[in-house]
Each structure stands twice: as C-alpha cells, then as structure tokens.
Design brief:
Blueprint (H helix, E strand, L loop, with lengths): L13 E2 H8 L3 H9 L6 E3 L3 E4 L1 H7 L11
Antiparallel strand pairs: 1-3, 2-3
Helix pairs in contact: 1-2
C-alpha cells in the first residue's frame, strides 16, 4: 500500500520590502496600509511581517478617466 503525500501548494508571501518593490511604493506606505487595515498581513515569528501578492493587487485600483464615464 502506498501513501500519497497530499501537500498544499505553497503560496508565496512577500516581505514588506518585496511588497514595496512590487508596487513601486515605499516600505513606509506598505506599513501604513497594513496599520489602517487596507492591506491584510501575516506575522511570521516575533518580528517578520508578510503579505500576499493577491492582496497587493486588490490594493491597486485604476484611476477613472473621461472615456470610462461613458
């Protein structure tokens, strides 16, 4: 009898520095968005904070222009 290893696919979590580079924002802005609740984050250990790339995508939104109002 064989046992299948059913592991969850690993999800990439970004450091605050990586998240800042990914969004072209400062690390301070990323920390502010975490503090005000706009960006969910996860604490890994006593000091490390990580964010998911999909949460960063949700943080970014397009700016409407004149053509989008038609």
């Amino acid at each position: 009898m064989t046992v299948q290893n059913k592991t969850r696919p690993t999800r990439r979590l970004l450091t605050i520095e990586e998240a800042a580079a990914y969004t072209s924002l400062s690390t301070r802005t990323i920390r502010r968005r975490i503090a005000d609740g706009a960006l969910p984050a996860f604490r890994v250990g006593p000091r490390s904070i990580r964010v998911r790339p999909e949460h960063l995508e949700q943080l970014l939104r397009p700016i409407p222009n004149a053509r989008s109002w038609r």
